[in-house]
């Protein structure tokens, strides 16, 4: 019973933190954009505008809900529900910290640690495209349909390169478990940063983060929502909280992507010299949680920085980058990684 209660509490905390970070990512997006464009940004709702996400949420809740007469009503409602649900599901496998020890009881700061965790994440991401496709098609709007087709083709194309980049990482780590991958980057006694996977897989990390931008429909890969061509993309016909679900799911995906990148390549909750501090294990675990959150915040800022720095690609450029550049690079990375492992394991010399 204690185990079940602990897991329920952990689920509630992760759920709340995810919603909080996603909500205030909208505020940070505006502030970062304002800073880069020499503006002030939101400053009316509360001190420094910190209540702006609450104002936006209330606006979505109280706005009139409009469902087009010519739409497929059931699928029109189902689309944003799928998008939001799949965005929330991926966070259950993130190891947010080491363990907490109370007496004889050891509690993991990970909701679930599957031995095929990476496959689970990819499976959930693959389902997310259905929410976009269903919403765009059910709207019975040509701009929504074009946006949905673009999003589907883009996500499917970049999932291939992302999956191939992960294969090289699996060759290095020998596991699909996010918990084990994070634990391997502790680096022995000291927890040195040079044990992080980004040191061993710099090309794989570069490919993965580029694909993460495309999977989250973030600039310069925001062709599915290209306002200058498609009005609003696949959610053109949506209003009220259904539109809020689509927009919110995008920021949740960005948060989860940042957490996955931090876990796979940047040590997760590990930080340099963590085991040399001489502190209590529980205190080290709590510091590790804060360290992981700080890494996630950095990558969220990086997503926003790129958005307000680089213009979007043309669609043909986007597809050429995915199929003609990233996929060959991913295959090359797998080959080089396998060759290095083979030489190392067999003690070969040139």
From TrEMBL:
<feature type="transmembrane region" description="Helical">
    <location>
        <begin position="74"/>
        <end position="97"/>
    </location>
</feature>
<feature type="transmembrane region" description="Helical">
    <location>
        <begin position="325"/>
        <end position="343"/>
    </location>
</feature>
<dbReference type="GO" id="GO:0048038">
    <property type="term" value="F:quinone binding"/>
</dbReference>
<keyword id="KW-1133">Transmembrane helix</keyword>
<dbReference type="InterPro" id="IPR018086">
    <property type="entry name" value="NADH_UbQ_OxRdtase_su1_CS"/>
</dbReference>
<feature type="transmembrane region" description="Helical">
    <location>
        <begin position="160"/>
        <end position="181"/>
    </location>
</feature>
<dbReference type="Pfam" id="PF00146">
    <property type="entry name" value="NADHdh"/>
</dbReference>
<comment type="similarity">
    <text>Belongs to the complex I subunit 1 family.</text>
</comment>
<keyword id="KW-0874">Quinone</keyword>
<dbReference type="GO" id="GO:0003954">
    <property type="term" value="F:NADH dehydrogenase activity"/>
</dbReference>
<keyword id="KW-1003">Cell membrane</keyword>
<dbReference type="GO" id="GO:0016655">
    <property type="term" value="F:oxidoreductase activity, acting on NAD(P)H, quinone or similar compound as acceptor"/>
</dbReference>
<dbReference type="GO" id="GO:0005886">
    <property type="term" value="C:plasma membrane"/>
</dbReference>
<keyword id="KW-0560">Oxidoreductase</keyword>
<feature type="transmembrane region" description="Helical">
    <location>
        <begin position="193"/>
        <end position="214"/>
    </location>
</feature>
<keyword id="KW-0472">Membrane</keyword>
<feature type="transmembrane region" description="Helical">
    <location>
        <begin position="117"/>
        <end position="139"/>
    </location>
</feature>
<dbReference type="GO" id="GO:0009060">
    <property type="term" value="P:aerobic respiration"/>
</dbReference>
<keyword id="KW-0520">NAD</keyword>
<dbReference type="InterPro" id="IPR001694">
    <property type="entry name" value="NADH_UbQ_OxRdtase_su1/FPO"/>
</dbReference>
<keyword id="KW-1278">Translocase</keyword>
<comment type="subunit">
    <text>NDH-1 is composed of 14 different subunits. Subunits NuoA, H, J, K, L, M, N constitute the membrane sector of the complex.</text>
</comment>
<feature type="transmembrane region" description="Helical">
    <location>
        <begin position="283"/>
        <end position="305"/>
    </location>
</feature>
<keyword id="KW-0812">Transmembrane</keyword>
<feature type="transmembrane region" description="Helical">
    <location>
        <begin position="251"/>
        <end position="271"/>
    </location>
</feature>
<protein>
    <recommendedName>
        <fullName>NADH-quinone oxidoreductase subunit H</fullName>
        <ecNumber>7.1.1.-</ecNumber>
    </recommendedName>
</protein>
<comment type="function">
    <text>NDH-1 shuttles electrons from NADH, via FMN and iron-sulfur (Fe-S) centers, to quinones in the respiratory chain. The immediate electron acceptor for the enzyme in this species is believed to be ubiquinone. Couples the redox reaction to proton translocation (for every two electrons transferred, four hydrogen ions are translocated across the cytoplasmic membrane), and thus conserves the redox energy in a proton gradient. This subunit may bind ubiquinone.</text>
</comment>
<keyword id="KW-0830">Ubiquinone</keyword>
């Amino acid at each position: 019973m204690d185990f079940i209660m602990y897991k329920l509490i952990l689920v509630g905390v992760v759920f709340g933190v995810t919603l909080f970070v996603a909500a205030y990512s909208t505020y940070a997006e505006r502030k970062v954009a304002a800073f880069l464009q020499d503006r002030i940004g939101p400053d009316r709702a509360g001190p420094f505008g910190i209540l702006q996400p609450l104002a936006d949420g209330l606006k979505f809740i109280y706005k009139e809900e409009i469902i087009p007469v010519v739409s497929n009503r059931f699928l029109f409602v189902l689309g944003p529900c799928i998008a939001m649900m799949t965005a929330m599901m991926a966070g259950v496998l993130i190891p947010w910290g080491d363990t907490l020890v109370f007496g004889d009881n050891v509690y993991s700061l990970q909701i679930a640690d599957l031995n095929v965790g990476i496959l689970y994440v990819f499976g959930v991401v693959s389902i997310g495209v259905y929410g976009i496709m269903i919403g765009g098609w059910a709207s019975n709007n040509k701009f929504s349909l074009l946006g949905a087709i673009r999003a589907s083709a883009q996500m499917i194309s970049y999932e291939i390169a992302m999956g191939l980049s992960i294969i090289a990482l699996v060759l290095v780590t020998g596991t699909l478990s996010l918990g084990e991958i994070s634990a391997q980057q502790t680096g022995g006694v000291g927890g040195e940063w040079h044990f992080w996977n980004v040191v061993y897989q710099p090309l794989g990390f570069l490919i993965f983060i580029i694909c993460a931008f495309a999977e989250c429909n973030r600039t310069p890969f925001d062709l599915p929502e290209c306002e200058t061509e498609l009005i609003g993309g696949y959610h053109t016909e949506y209003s009220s909280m259904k539109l809020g679900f689509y927009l919110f799911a995008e920021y949740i995906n960005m948060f989860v992507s940042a957490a996955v990148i931090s876990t796979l390549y940047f040590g997760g909750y590990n930080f340099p010299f963590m085991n040399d501090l001489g502190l209590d294990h529980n205190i080290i675990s709590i510091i590790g949680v804060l360290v992981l959150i700080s890494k996630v915040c950095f990558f969220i800022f990086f997503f926003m920085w790129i958005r307000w720095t680089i213009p979007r690609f043309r669609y043909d450029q986007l597809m050429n980058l995915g199929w003609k550049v990233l996929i060959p690079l991913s295959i090359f990375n797998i080959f080089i990684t396998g060759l290095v492992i083979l030489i190392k394991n067999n003690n070969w010399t040139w």
